Amino acid sequence: MRPDHTSGENLSCTHLRRLPVSVVGSLCHVFRSLDQDERAGGVPYLLGIFEASFGARAPYFLSLFYQRGELAFRTSILLGMSPLANCFAAALALRSDARQTFQRGAVEASLARRGAPTILFAPVVFFFLPDSPGSAKLLNEDAQTHAVERLQTRDHTAKHRIQWQQLFAGLTDYRNVVHTLIHFMCNYSFAGLSNLLPTIVQGLGYSSINAQGLTAPVYFASFLLCVTAALVSDRWGRRGFIVAAAASVRCIGYLLLATVEDNPHVRYLGVWLAVCGIFPALCINITWLLNNNSSESKRGAGLAVLATFGQCSSFLSSAVFPKEDAPHYSKGCAIGCGFAGAIIILSPGTLFPPSSHQQEEGRLAWSRGR
User: Fold this and answer.
1) Consecutive sets of 10 residues in the chain, 370 residues long: mean pLDDT of each?
2) Would you call 260 exposed, middle or buried from its count of C-beta atoms within 10 A (0-12, 13-18, 19+)?
3) Domain residues of the chain, as ranges?
4) Could you list the residue ranges that cross the membrane (predicted)?
5) Fewest CB within 10 A of the end CB: N or C in the chain?
């Protein structure tokens, strides 16, 4: 009998799945057309809502196509685009004149550049991105069957509708709560340090433009480490120790930034360590949550909790990095160091002892995923 090829189709909500991608670009262009007072209205909030929807949906979507031993690398490419984009932005800043940076219309032009690609690419996503392996138009029937069968060791629940019992299990599973806490503490650095990094580097004695340029290699190294950590994690089959290692690097970096104020070389080393520890931990933690939830409904619920509450640390980071603390931001960096230390404590795999059934299922999934 041919396997059920509707895996994830109803859960994906074919048209709603594509909505956040195109709406983000449209909102960028709407935001561009507004004046300063109008921008204080609802458009920024809508932009945040749809960006958050895309951020939660994309890793879940990848989990519909790849086994657990293949997922971290794909997720690292997805999330690694953030430091890579920052790298290109910092490199481009070196080619810009400082006076042009603050010219009238610079913000509008930036929003137009950000919004246009998503609008142009939205039709490609709408018409060519499949909802599941069983509905991929580029595969023939035999290939679709094989693509569905290779995922059966992971999810044995019905896929044509939401499994409410599994959904509530995902909302109450303590492991998902721990993953959410780890994401909260990772996102604190992502939202805070990433935005203030040029200011911190500028405080080392560089001009604004040169400070932007000096962040480029840091972000590029972070992208490479994110992908490398994912490959090691997929190959080794361990998530917690990779998260702990990345958090340790970040903890040392934040400690240097919080305690050293008069040595620019040591502070720049702290910048490297702090940034390079953010994205590997962020990527592996999300992949780890997807691996720990076998059914699609439970996986989606767990990721929704992580994306909703885990992102709230952005509010905290905006409060503990006040302008008067520039350029050292000792208080914010000290909190980041504490969060990184907490991740080291939470992340070891002994915190999540699997049952014998989960161990056997995981062993089969890892072996078939290679």
Assistant:
1) 45 48 49 49 63 72 84 91 85 61 56 70 78 75 76 54 71 86 91 84 86 90 95 88 94 95 93 94 92 81 84 85 86 94 82 50 47
2) middle
3) 19-65+101-156, 168-369
4) 71-94, 214-233, 240-257, 269-290
5) N
